[in-house]
């Protein structure tokens, strides 16, 4: 494939991921020349995790239609809900069906350092490849990410020998050139940031930083659940996101959109997302210095704006 491009039957190749997976799965399929339609989304359960029964039936359906499911993308920490697909079970299915398993751990990969949530990554070592973003929960400046392969030999699939840069004799003499393992040629020494952070902060303090954001998310979800004028979707946050909205008896979508926009221009940038066509607001607790009081301050401002907009839209 590296030499001759996509195989003749490329239009039968399919990628499976959950309906909550990140849009970059589709974007990558398009960049690979397979097209976004090669990505088949699998339903999620009530906890926004990929449904295993639906995955199995999708694979069976594809095979009966002569399609070739070749990649399962499991997400460890979906962008909105922080949900974690059942990694161990995905690994079993991928092995049975001889399908490559990729885990998008861009958001959730940092759980590996967590004291309280680490077991949620159980089974991740079985993935054929993993992506991790260090500019998310590892607190590194943008950008800093890694693509990990279970079998290092597969890096050959992206290796290109250029005489001026990484000639064969360099490799034979043990001279390391990371261009052989990268899609980019010229690039920054991003791993230095992570290395120095791990060295100076240490994994224990990292764990405390990360875990404090999970605790804050739980406290905020509990607080919001007690308020009559708020509805919370993530009552028990899986990671550190809280998805909620201000409750208005009319034009609830517009009211929440207006709240987010006005807050953005006046006080704080909070995220908005759409779930089943409904607008929701979202807190992603990344900063370990943020306190419940800071968040309640924002919630109070949301309430004031909500009361204003429900009368005006
Ligand atoms: C689950 C997940 N995967 C992938 C990405 C994309 O990461 P990046 O912004 O580093 O391209 C994100 C970004 O939000 C994400 O949440």
Automatic annotation (TrEMBL):
<dbReference type="InterPro" id="IPR002129">
    <property type="entry name" value="PyrdxlP-dep_de-COase"/>
</dbReference>
<dbReference type="InterPro" id="IPR021115">
    <property type="entry name" value="Pyridoxal-P_BS"/>
</dbReference>
<dbReference type="InterPro" id="IPR015424">
    <property type="entry name" value="PyrdxlP-dep_Trfase"/>
</dbReference>
<protein>
    <submittedName>
        <fullName>Glutamate/tyrosine decarboxylase-like PLP-dependent enzyme</fullName>
    </submittedName>
</protein>
<comment type="similarity">
    <text>Belongs to the group II decarboxylase family.</text>
</comment>
<dbReference type="Pfam" id="PF00282">
    <property type="entry name" value="Pyridoxal_deC"/>
</dbReference>
<keyword id="KW-0210">Decarboxylase</keyword>
<dbReference type="InterPro" id="IPR015422">
    <property type="entry name" value="PyrdxlP-dep_Trfase_small"/>
</dbReference>
<keyword id="KW-0663">Pyridoxal phosphate</keyword>
<dbReference type="InterPro" id="IPR015421">
    <property type="entry name" value="PyrdxlP-dep_Trfase_major"/>
</dbReference>
<keyword id="KW-0456">Lyase</keyword>
